[in-house]
């Protein structure tokens, strides 16, 4: 069973370890010092930022990190995406990683995405869709989104998370199911 809980400062060593793994570091390009993790995840953990950082738990064991935010809480990202696909006013975005390499490639990511998307509909009743830009080269990521029911809505040139990547992104989206 996949469940979620908010990241706390006690989780920072786990996040640092995950972010240092090659399969994560390739796409997240994140500093892994204690100071950097506290700087980048602290405000969310303390509830001082509009985004949420959550751990995905598989039968109670942490397996991944998920981030979620309303697009329009971050206007600079809305503006960057707008020439390629205009994010609706109540659109939400997510980002995600599976922490341990041995857990990648067996459908866990898709299961986590399905459950986190369902959780988004519950927690954000006004959300009309979830929109996720993914580096075009990160095929495993956008394929997991497809398997979770997302569809490609655009191709875009966006600032990559990792400066070694080109600006090519695929924009994946899923609409709120009819009630």
TrEMBL record:
It comes from the Bacteria. The keyword Transferase applies. GO terms for molecular function: aminoglycoside 6'-N-acetyltransferase activity. Transmembrane segments: none annotated. Residues 5-48 form the Acyltransferase MbtK/IucB-like conserved domain. Pfam families: Acetyltransf_8. Pathway: Siderophore biosynthesis; mycobactin biosynthesis. InterPro entries: Acyl_CoA_acyltransferase, Acyltransferase_MbtK/IucB-like. The keyword Mitochondrion does not apply. Gene3D superfamilies: 3.40.630.30. Keywords: Acyltransferase, Transferase. Acyltransferase required for the direct transfer of medium- to long-chain fatty acyl moieties from a carrier protein (MbtL) on to the epsilon-amino group of lysine residue in the mycobactin core. This is Lysine N-acyltransferase MbtK. It comes from Rhodococcoides corynebacterioides.
């Amino acid at each position: 069973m996949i469940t979620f809980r908010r990241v706390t400062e006690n989780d920072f060593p786990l996040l640092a370890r995950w972010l240092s793994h090659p399969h994560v570091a390739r796409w997240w390009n994140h500093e892994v010092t204690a100071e950097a993790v506290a700087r980048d995840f602290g405000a969310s953990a303390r509830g001082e930022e509009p985004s949420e950082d959550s751990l995905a738990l598989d039968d109670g064991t942490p397996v991944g990190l998920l981030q979620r935010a309303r697009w329009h809480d971050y206007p600079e990202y809305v503006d960057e995406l707008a020439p390629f696909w205009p994010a609706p006013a109540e659109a939400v975005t997510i980002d995600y990683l599976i922490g341990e390499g041995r857990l990648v490639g067996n459908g866990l990511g898709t299961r986590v995405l399905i459950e986190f998307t369902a959780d988004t509909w519950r927690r954000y009743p006004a959300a009309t869709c979830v929109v996720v830009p993914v580096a075009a080269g990160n095929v495993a990521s956008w394929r997991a989104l497809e398997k979770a029911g997302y569809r490609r809505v655009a191709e875009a040139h966006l600032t990559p998370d990792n400066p070694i990547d080109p600006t090519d992104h695929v924009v994946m989206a899923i609409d709120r199911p009819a009630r």
